[in-house]
Amino acid sequence: MKESIPGWWSKGAVWLWAVAVGMVSASLWLVVARAPVESVMGPVQKIVYIHVPSAIAASIAFGLTFAAGIAYLATRQWQWDALGASSAEIGLMFATVVMVTGPLWARSAWNTWWTWEPRLTTFFILWILYAAYLIIRSSLRGGSRRTISAVMGIVFAILVPIVYMSVTWWRGSLHPRNVTMTGDMRFVLQFSILAWLCFYAAALACRFRLEWAAEAAAREGDQAFHEARLAGEASR
Amino acid sequence: MTALDVAAKDLKLLVRDARFLATLGLFSATLVLILSVAFGPVFRDPAREASATIWASLFFAGVLGLTRSLAMESETGGADAIRLTGADPYAVYLGKAFASFVLLAAVFVLLLPLTSVFFDVGDLSILPALAGVAVLALVGYAAWGTMFAALARGLPARELLLSVLLFPSLVPLWIGAVKLTHALWDTGSLESVRDWLKVMAVMDVLGLALAAWLFEAIQEAGE
After folding, report:
1. Is A155 an interface residue toward B (CB < 8 Å)?
2. Strand (E) or helix (H) holding A74
3. Does residue A224 lie in a domain region?
4. Do A129 and B221 touch (CB under 8 A)?
């Protein structure tokens, strides 16, 4: 198991960031310049180009935390725990974007900031659970921190398909699904999804690098402590 | 050590702790009282308000009950002793979940007449169906609650964290319980909300299945 961060990882992360920033900038330009203004809602409808990619990125992030949780419980390797925690943190950031952009859109579409309809309610619950994940993780230390995080990552991810299917399962859902779009709208949305997924990958690479550095520092600290203790015992 | 041994031990400890049981009973009754005052004095839809009241009160009372047995074990080293017997982790989980179910059922039995009287809802003919709904809801609550309580053991402010974790996870179960109870108190039949029985049964099975998979890891993390 390598403990120091290899150079190729850091260089790769820089390149990934460069691609992500370029693509996100291009997607924002496309949203402003190319995506047509929707006839009923007007410019507010353009929130969808941030809202939908953020929701997809959050779902993928929580899905990765789920998979990393299973891998950690099976192998007990710290890398899986670091990957799951990093992904959960970035997923929560995207989920927060969804929680902010959703009401902005709803105010214009439904004339209310918030309504207790299934997709909104289940997504809010998802947000609370992953916020609790980070609080609980930060209050634990050692091996239990990893195991408990893996368990939470697995259990909470069960809500992701429930959020997705809520508009189908519960009658009376107001949330749009299978929206008809013009060619330009569809292209801009697909490009935005790709751009924000790139952003997610770059953020994940960076966050994982931090976990890696923390792990290496902890191991070096342990080693230095043991060496100092041995030296102290030898001099006695 | 079998699941029944663990359940018997937990129940014996609970029965001995009469002060805790009395406080839990009083706390639950107070919750019903507060909510009935908040909704009243004239109820617009007594069946709806009563069903929300009984399940909300049971949830908060249940959080205290769920953390109690695990907290007692942490204080006395009982968890380590059970591990030393070589008992199967899932048997330990089932025993604890069963003891929690019995405790929650006792709280429900206390709250049911109180709610019925305060809100003037229900009659004896719907009691078997209501008992069925309560069993479905409480099995799920005990199954998920025992798993989460073990997970939150040793954490600072565990009661608060348990509420934060449990309530969102069990939303399908609570909505089902409230809708079914409301239907029974309102129309005397479950016909219009039959689908929620399936949702609740799925939540029960899911909780028990997840615990079968994950409880050993949770128990190990708590050492």
Report:
1. yes
2. helix A48-75
3. no
4. no
Per the structure, the complete domain to which residue B169 belongs is given by 3-221
Residue B61 near residue B188 (C-beta atoms within 8 A): no
Total structural domains in chain A? 1
Which ranges of A76-182 does DSSP label H, i.e. alpha helix? 78-109, 118-138, 142-156, 159-169
Rounded Cα distance between A151 and A153, Å, is: 5
**Residue A142 belongs to domain with CATH number:** 1.20.120
* pLDDT under 70: residue ranges of chain A: 1-4, 168-180, 236
Number of domains, chain B = 1
Task: Give bridge partners of residue A38 from the DSSP assignment.
Answer: A42
B223 to chain A: closest CA residue: A144
Position A171 scores a pLDDT of 62
B151 at the A interface (CB within 8 A)? yes
Domain that holds residue A123: 22-172+186-208
Residue B74, pLDDT > 80, answer no
Measured from the Cβ of residue A139, the count of other Cβ atoms closer than 10 Å reads 14
Asked whether this complex has an ipTM greater than 0.95, the answer is no
B217: contact with A, CB 8 A cutoff: yes
- Tell me if B217 and A139 make a contact (CB, 8 A cut-off): no
Q: How far is CA B89 from the centre of its chain?
A: 21
Please report whether residue A108 resides in a domain: yes
- Decide if B172 and A125 are in contact by the 8 Å CB cutoff: no
- Is B221 an interface residue toward A (CB < 8 Å)? yes
Interface test with A, best of B146, B213, B219, B223 (most A CBs within 10 A): B213
Give A26 to chain B, closest Cα distance, Å. 38
